[in-house]
Structure formats: C-alpha cells, structure tokens
Amino acid sequence: MTVTTAAASPALLHGVGDRALTWLDNHREHFRLTPEDRATGKGVIERLKPIGELAINMRVLFREGVAGSRQHTRAGHLLDFAWRELLDGGNVLAALQHEEPFSPVPLEIYSAFHELGFRHPGLESAVEAGRRTLTWSAVEVLPNRRLGVINSERQTGLVPSEDFDGALSRTWLGRLPEPWTVQYHIAYDITHTVFHLTNWGEKPDGIPPDIASYLALYLPAWIEDWADLEHWDLLGELLVVDTCLPRPVLDAEIWERYAAAQCDSGAMPLHHGMPDGDAAEVFDIVHHPTMVAAFASAMAVSRAMSTAR
Q1: What is the DSSP secondary structure assignment for residue 102, as one 8-state letter?
Q2: pLDDT of residue 2
Q3: Contacts for 17 with CB less than 8 Å, ≥ 6 apart
Q4: Distances (CA, A) of 124 to 103, 115, 145
Q5: Can you tell me the mean pLDDT for 212-241?
Q6: Is the terminal CB of the chain with fewer CB neighbours within 10 Å at N or C?
Q7: What's the pLDDT at 132?
Q8: Within 10 Å of residue 282's Cβ, how many Cβ atoms?
Q9: What contacts 263, CB < 8 A, 6 or more positions away?
Q10: Do residues 184 and 233 touch, judged by C-beta distance below 8 A?
C-alpha cells in the first residue's frame, strides 16, 4: 500500500466536480424516459434510478455549500429539469407507485426531491397506503437497501417502518467481518451502508465508533486496490466514504490518479478508459461514475476546507 502524507489541493478536488457537473448538464436529455419505456414499462425502474441519483448529487452540492455561483446555478437548473420534465412534477413516480404499491423505489427517488422542497401529495398518499400493509416491510431487499428505505421514510416525515439499528446489524459492514473478503459487490454494499448511515455524507457522526475505527484501519488498502484496478466508479464511492470518517485522508496521489482518469468532457469512465459506442450507450455506462465524481468532489472540497480552518 502506498503511504503518503500530502493532501489533495482544493483546486484539484473542485475541478473534478465542476467538469462532472458540466458533462451531466450537457447530457441531461439522456436521463429522459423514452416513449417505449413509458408504453411497455420495461426497465422503467432502471431508467428512474439515475434521476434519483442526480437529485441526491444536487442535494449534496447545495448542502455542502462549496459550489461557485456558476456551478450552483447549473445544479439548480438540472434539479428543476429532473423534477418538472423527467418526472413530470412527480406524476411519473405516482403512476409507478399505483402500479407497484409495495415498491419502495418511488419513495427512495422522491425523498431526495422532498428534502429540497418539492412535493406531490398524490404520491405521498399512495406510499402511505402501501406502508399500512405487512407486505411493505416483508418485501425482501438487501440489508443496506433496507437502511435506504428507512432513511427515505425519515426524509419525507414518515415514521420508519423498521428499527434502523436492527437493519444495520444485518448488513455486511455492521458485522465487521474479515476485511480481505471485499469483493466487487461487497464493496458497493459497504459504501452504500455508509451513505445511508450518514445521509449521504451529511452526518458523519452517524457511523458508529466501532465501524468508523474498522473503516479507518482498512479503507486505505481498499482504496489503493481499486485504484490499481482502475475501477473509477467504485474508487469514487470509496473516496466519499473516506470523507465521512473522523479523520479523512484525502490522499493527493490517489486523487491525482482519479482526476487524471476523467475525460476532458467531464465524463468519468466506469473501468479503465472511456467505452466506444453511440452517445446513448456511452451515457448508460458512464453516467453513474460521473455522478459519483461530482459527489466525491463536493464532499472532498468541503472536508478539505473544514480541515484547513
């Protein structure tokens, strides 16, 4: 494992996010559901999830207060576009909730918009009808995903349908297992558990002390491993986890490698370099790592500024 003491410069950290946000804005139309999506319902949930992720990113950027005026305005326009045009003012989510009354997906997407002041009473009524059933909490989802559902309930002012600590105890990270078993899918379980514990970085003290100590011990090695594998999407999520710890590392060498992987356009490759294909196909592959880059940048700049005070 490479050991360094230098911290990444705020300019480098900010540049990653600024370029990523620019690319997302320039490619906003690719978030839109196609007529075929709406007509057949095929892949609707998969097409909606990126819109929820986009809203989460904009919420993080507004919350951390590290965006310049141009970036802040761009983020606001993107958020408004997502709500009014992509989701038809929330009607798309309400329709999905009526079609699949026990699905938590509409609520998970809506919660990020709700925290930013957007409202859809019809969707809220439909969600509440589903929550009154035993099926709502009986639907089987991954343990870290259950944390996300509980958080979404909290964010929209609902009483959580399950005990948060009990759900945490069933996650991989909650059990503090042997660290060398961090394979691809487990690593994503770890990062999302941290995101839900901290409300996407808002409350770092939401990580229990034993889990924070565990992560502080092993996270640097995981970051180094995934950087060596040039898996930029997962590396970006692990860099966010670093910013959620009591003493973030913000390693300059790792961040320089991460920034160097980003294309001039602002897109962040998923793995190795940019893929080939038409614009829509490339978007489907790289929109997530690019949103992760914007997320990681906002969190890193905020922590760097806090540390410098």
Answers
A1: T
A2: 43
A3: 61, 71, 293, 294, 296, 297, 298, 301
A4: 13, 14, 20
A5: 96
A6: C
A7: 94
A8: 17
A9: 23, 269, 274
A10: no
CB 250 within 8 A of CB 300: yes
CA 294 and chain centroid, separation: 10
pLDDT of 299 reads: 97
Distance CA 208, CA 233 (A): 25
DSSP state of 277: S
Rounded Cα gap, residues 292 and 114, in angstroms: 21
Q: Which residues contact 148 (CB under 8 A, 6 or more apart)?
A: 108, 192, 195, 196
User: To the nearest 10°, the Cα dihedral for 146, 152, 153, 157?
Assistant: 160
Say whether pLDDT at 285 is over 70: yes
For the cut 60, the answer to whether the pLDDT of residue 4 exceeds it is no
Q: So what's the pLDDT on residue 1?
A: 41
pLDDT of residue 40: 66
3-state class of 167 per DSSP?
A: helix
pTM of the model: 0.94
Report whether pLDDT(169) > 80.
yes
Q: Which amino acid is at 56?
A: I
| Helix, strand, coil in percent for the chain, rounding step 5 | 70, 0, 30
The residues near 254 (Cβ < 8 Å, ≥ 6 apart) are 8, 223, 224, 227, 235, 239
For 6, list phi and psi in degrees, rounded to 5.
-75, 140
- Tell me which amino acid residue 116 is: L
